[in-house]
């Protein structure tokens, strides 16, 4: 047992300071997409809706409706339309209001 | 697929008439080095029963059409088939001719046809099957012991300790000693195989890798390889090496997690913390190298979608693995820990062979089988050809032996990753033909990969448009849970059960799918 | 469907009550309604040295009777409904239910004969944590939101990428 105690002291503290301070490991986490309205055409939006395996995307007229709660950050939409889709880099997504996770992205690429 | 192409791929498919099935099975079971790796059925005008044998020369799949609702009793010659016989009965309504009782295993109690039971539970909704539901529902599990005298039976779960998957144990005990333990995983049956039907391999991949998320790379690879075999394509070699790097990273983090679980089960909190530090560092290596802590979304039918960041991998992996190595060395020098593992949960090689167990569980009894060594020619895209794996085995078949095998495999994984990185990786996909699947690949194929838990098998049948008509996923957990009760019985007490469970490191999700 | 004025006010008062009662010490019971097992691994890491939820006053408990917060994973497999409800009902009030992971929030599996596809069909949810899986950092943020210690970011996020050539389109 003294072996473990000494080992622990030598190893030091690895504990994150999050949430008091940011944690740099967050930079490599996969995050939901952010969309470029100017690069979204109706046709591109329909392609994105079809490629999403988790039913997180839906098109209603000139709005791309994005359910962040259903998103798995799989990256298929970004691969299907790389100019219209970036990484949002947001991982702090918890909410007390489910409707706050439904985002409406204007489709302005046809204009 | 043509016979030459199949043989080149290491898989041979033979049609066996129902009248010959028992004899052929008995002959194969007696062949040295043969192992029944899986058994499943497919729907059609009549159901087709397939047995997958792992032979020294590669895999052999026997296909038999079953008229009527009975087939020869195969688990009498191959006890490894019993769990599959139960599953096949639940899904296709066909059963062995001996009429021996089969257990309800995969589907929940209310999955039967809607009917009222007088004085009992109201009828529940029926669940869809892959074929046709059985005429007579399978019996509930009867543990093969006498509950009387001093032995009593108590249920535990499915809601268990914090952070553990839902899993139901039926524990039969006379006090402390474990007389028997049987498991139900139907609380986690999501119907993955049912769900894959009608999808293209690319669409199905998303669900295949989530069948057992802790083996996402292995199950995904086996599934992708099965689709590739069905379509007659092979991934580019560099993409194959990308898959192998991801698979070895998956093996590493799982073995670290199993080490942490062993420490938790034995109450050695400092050891658990040390192993968890290693596990977290390995997961961060995965995220930095492949963009996901659990390596989701790397394997794709045809190849790989992402290539690892080799600089980050070379820089960060040695330190993360060193963390695990130092924790393991300290554990091996802690007598109170090692004493709990030795002679605990013993499985013999004979038991492992009879039940067709795979992975470290089998290797710890001395059986040197590893799916990474399975015969296949380079054109299959098997990246391990040219990078032979040193298979780790042990002799005693106890928890300690399984732990030693995992540690040896972790070291070997690090070495292999270095070799694959040196040989070059890429994110490339071979184009998958959409139409004409039947001509290109024969329309069906077998894929495999060695997960941290053991051999994963997948078999896929595609229609003319390249859509799945039948997908079979057989993670290592499906094989190995049946060894769990043998390992827990006799000479083991309650408090040994979590230790044995950690040394198996299976999942309920992988069994239930 | 946006909440009414009354509902928003009730929710705010409830959150304040929760923060008063749970702000310093919260006991968490986990519930797996059919996950792929990865969400559980991330949850287990909350008590690992890198994250150490104890320093924030959060603790795991195996007993629903001692628990304040139910952390739920999985797509709500129908065969598990009875066990899920029994666990929830065994927890004394006040209690908070946190659904975590894309499966639990309605993604991945659509409703079908095997699964509800959404834990909200079986249990009343107070907090939603997206991710596949939610990382331990995301889980810590979610727990902080659940006890009112951290402000939510989600309502202010648009998921609209700024135009690199100029102002946001």
Concise overview:
Chain A is α+β, with helices and mostly antiparallel strands and 111 residues long. Chain A is 23% helix and 18% strand. By secondary structure, chain C is an alpha/beta fold.
Oligomer: heterotrimer
Return the structural class of chain C. Answer: alpha/beta
Backbone structural class of chain B: alpha+beta
Largest beta-sheet characterization of chain C: 5 strands, parallel
- First-last Cα distance of chain C: 27 Å
- Name the beta content range of chain C: 5-15%
Strand order of the largest sheet of chain B: 1-4-3-2
Tell me the CATH superfamily of the largest domain in chain B: Cytochrome-c3 Hydrogenase, chain B
Largest sheet of chain B: 4 strands, mixed
Give the chain pair forming the largest contact, with residue counts: A-C, 48 and 46 residues
Count of domain modules of chain B: 3
Percent strand of chain B equals 15-25%
Helical content of chain B stands at 40-55%
Strand-and-helix sequence of chain C, N→C?
HEHEEHEHEH
Please tell me the overall pLDDT of chain C. Answer: 88
The Cα radius of gyration of chain B reads 22 Å
Low-confidence stretches of chain C: none
Radius of gyration of chain C: 17 Å
Helix proportion of residues of chain C, in percent?
25-40%
* CATH fold group of the largest domain in chain B: Cytochrome-c3 Hydrogenase, chain B
Descriptive overview:
The complex is a heterotrimer of chains A (111), B (513) and C (169). Chain A is α+β, with helices and mostly antiparallel strands and 111 residues long. Chain A is built from three helices and five strands; from the N terminus they run H-E-H-E-E-H-E-E. The longest helix of chain A has 10 residues. The N terminus of chain B is likely disordered. Chain B folds into three domains: 109 residues, 2-Layer Sandwich (Beta Polymerase, domain 2); 33 residues, no CATH class; 289 residues, Cytochrome-c3 Hydrogenase, chain B (Orthogonal Bundle). Chain C is 30% helix and 14% strand. The mean pLDDT of chain C is 88. In chain C, helix 3 links the parallel strand 3 and strand 4. Chain C has a five-stranded parallel sheet with strand order 2-1-3-4-5, sandwiched between helices. Chain C has a single domain, classed as Rossmann fold. Chains in contact: A-B, A-C, B-C. Chains A and C meet through strand 1 and strand 5 of A and strand 5 and helix 5 of C.
